[in-house]
Amino acid sequence: MGLLLTYAKPYWKKIIVAVLSVTLLAASTLAQPQFLEKMMTAIIQDQSDVILKNGVFLLALAFVGIAAGITGTYYASQVSQGVAADIRRAEYEKIQAFSLQQVQSYSSANLVVRLTNDINQVQQLVMQMLQMVLRVPMMFLGAIILAIWTLPSLWWVVLLMIALIVLSSKRIFSMMGGYFGKIQQLIDQNNTLAQENLAGVRVVKSFNQQGQEEASFADNTNELTAVNRRIGYLFNLMFPIFMLISYAAIAAALLFISTSIKEAPDQLAKITPFITYLNQILMALLMLGMISTFASRGFVSLKRIGSVMAEETARLDKEAAGQPIDKAAFLTKGLRVEKLSFTYPKAKEPVLKDLSFELAAGQTLGIVGSTGSGKSTLALLLARLYQPTAGTMTIDGEDVQNIQASDWHQAVGIVMQKPVLFSGSIEKNLRMGNPDASQEELAAAVRAAQAEDFVQAYPDGLAHEISERSANLSGGQKQRLSLARALVKKPRLLILDDATSALDARSEKRVQEVLEKDFSKTTKVIIAEKIASIIHANQILVLDEGRIVGVGSHQDLLDQSPIYQEIYASQKGKGADHE
Ligand SMILES: Nc1ncnc2c1ncn2[C@@H]1O[C@H](COP(=O)(O)OP(=O)(O)OP(=O)(O)O)[C@@H](O)[C@H]1O
């Protein structure tokens, strides 16, 4: 609720207009039966001038009601759309600042739902609240008071009708129970299924999984439909039950009036407004039911958005801490990692255990190890995309925690195992490395990454558009452009996680030569499956099940490390010894 108030604050003037308009609408609705009673009395007494006068008043009141209704709806929709847009923008901004850990702990599909469906629910909640917040209690209480004031002897009919409606709706709402939370959960799953299926469309088709995919999507959709239907049934049940109760109340009122009409004939003129008030009470209760429905869904969504905002703010503050750095003076002595351990969120076992190593500035560290030994995880920790669970990392003697994360990311280039490029031009992607890079600098990075041939083959060169999920690029092209993007940054520390695996041996060798020559001052961490890729590294780490089991040069490890010997032997003849 605090979140809603914060975002509603800038709209306070429009909120006041909206609320006042609907209050005026409620007042005009409540006043109408009074004129109706006067008209009925005048009809009974055959006073045509009074009939005409009250008829005009009634018409004027109806116009006031219509004008107030339109104004209220106009401002309520302006406020609800404005608030929703502001929350959406703020939530998106904050998700952008999320750490990798945070994104993964929510899952991307879940975050998409929180940004779309949940925001829509909140928008509807604001709209309904503004339309009904004062109107419903005013109509409800006003109609009760005026009904009893009109026909005091029938007070019990009013109260009995309300009691029966409240009791039956309470029962129906308790039956709706946790359905709203369940709906959000199912929408999350629905999104995950659709996203995974579309992202992995090639695998789905090549393994003929369309049937299975359809089946699991249908299961989820059916469950969602079933829950929605149950809510719909219960909600729709409310209306006939309410109608039944109100008709019973009207019948009771008519019955009691008919017995006393001879003694008090003026009651005949009062029965019409009385029945109108009973209907207004019913309407108010129905609106209350609707508000509760929207409120239940809206508050579930608000809570989900709130949890994103709250958690992320705390971590952001931590990230923002630290000293700004001078990039030119960054990593001039060396990098030192001490007793570093890391456990993934929700995992039981650490994937990296007690790692310690040192790397002098400008040197190259090679990392090899079996599948799942923790190489990529170490790369992500060095790039500060994850925070270590234990241990320290220092640069030139300074704890990296004291360096602003954004500065760190500016000085460190990482090329990930699975290259990710964004839809848009090649140039736009490269400029992520340095928005101010000159055309010469972009061309040099493209050349260094051995991407020049295929980029130049496009008639529009760097302006060539990369399509969604880089579907129009081959694996090797994606790797080359990802490498070029990191090189545009002119990083002080370059981390390559199996970044040249899709390159042919000749291109890979050229990349190594360029890195050696043009990036000689850059400290490099190169993770590779192929020993040939790191054979000349100053130092090589051998990882096994998250531990360092060997450190040294290629020759040292060949002499001392059985695991390294094993890897080398398995690659011999496949290019490992092509040097
Ligand atoms: N996001 C994640 N959440 C939980 N566990 C993870 C996550 N990413 C990786 N792991 C686990 O951490 C371990 C190390 O994974 P990592 O990707 O670092 O290995 P790797 O040495 O790079 O493997 P490969 O050579 O196959 O790329 C694996 O057991 C993997 O299952």
Output the radius of gyration: 35 Å
What is the total number of structural domains?
2
| Low-confidence segments | 314-318
Summarize the amount of helix as a percent range.
55-70%
CATH superfamily of the largest domain: ABC transporter type 1, transmembrane domain
Number of β-strand runs: 12
Bound molecules: adenosine-5'-triphosphate
Largest sheet: 6 strands, mixed
The oligomerization state is: single chain
| Share of residues in strands | 5-15%
First and last CA, distance: 66 Å
Strand order of the biggest β-sheet: 6-9-10-3-11-12
CATH topology of the largest domain: ABC transporter transmembrane region fold
Task: State mean pLDDT (0 to 100 scale).
Answer: 87
Features:
12 strands; 579 residues; 4-stranded antiparallel beta sheet; 2 domains; ABC transporter ATP-binding protein; nucleotide-binding; alpha/beta; Rossmann fold; 6-stranded mixed beta sheet; ABC transporter transmembrane region fold; transmembrane; elongated; binds adenosine-5'-triphosphate; Type_1_exporter
